[in-house]
Every structure is written in structure tokens, then in C-alpha cells.
Amino acid sequence: MAKILCATRGGEAAIKNQKAAIARAKENADSIIFFYVVDVEFLAHANYALRSDVVIGEMDNMADFLMTMAVERAEKEGVEASFIVRHGTFAHQLKETILEEEVSLVVLGKPEEESAFVLAGLQALASSLKKETGVEVWIPGLE
Fold first, then answer.
1. What pTM value is reported for the model?
2. The CATH classification of domain 3-138, taken from the options 3.40.50.2000, 3.40.50.1980, 3.40.50.620, 3.20.20.190
């Protein structure tokens, strides 16, 4: 059984991507790990007083909730699933997780808005990940 790492977040576009990853995992009898990164760098630029520990805690709770829902979607389809929530920058945490978890496929979601710039950035990330880790990267909807 191979492992699929599905980078995800919340929202309709993410759910479509999760469902595509779940279908692929089910088709090949693979397990799936949903992956979410909490990036709180914006807190360093806040112009008002706030307790960063509270903000981070709330963001972690939301990530856990979203990933639990994704795992439940997969399990309803008979797919073994788990999730990982990391902190930091997305690309760095994704690469580390690919290597640590020894995944065979990474699923990245196609941007909902049809921005050539955003899509080009995602494709560049996919290419870089494949080159640096040797793992296949799939962006559903770009076949």
C-alpha cells in the first residue's frame, strides 16, 4: 500500500481536491495523509496588540477540524486516512513531510481562480518537488 499526501485547506475547491485524492487512493488501495500548514508569519506585521499564542491556537483548532472532516470523507469511501498539521512556510513543510512520510504521490489543488500567475507558481512548486524528492506530483484538473 502506497501513501498519498494531499495538501489541503478549507473551502469548496479544497473539498474537490480531497475527493479527487480519495478516489485515486481508493482506486489503487493506497492510504492518504491530508496535510495542512498553519503559516502565521503575518502576525509579525500586525499593527495592533494581539496575543499570538491565542491566534495560533485558534488556527490550529480550525486546521484540526478541517482535517478531521477530510479524514471522515476518506473513511466513508473505505480509504485509510490520517492528517498532519505543520507550522511554517508551505513549500518547506511540504518538502520535509514528503521525505519524512515516504509518500509516493503528492496531490496539490488547482487554484480556483483562473490566474495564470498563481497556476504557474503551483506548477513550478510541483516541478521543484519532483526534482528534489523524486516523488510524483499530481494537480487534479490539469490532466
1. 0.88
2. 3.40.50.620
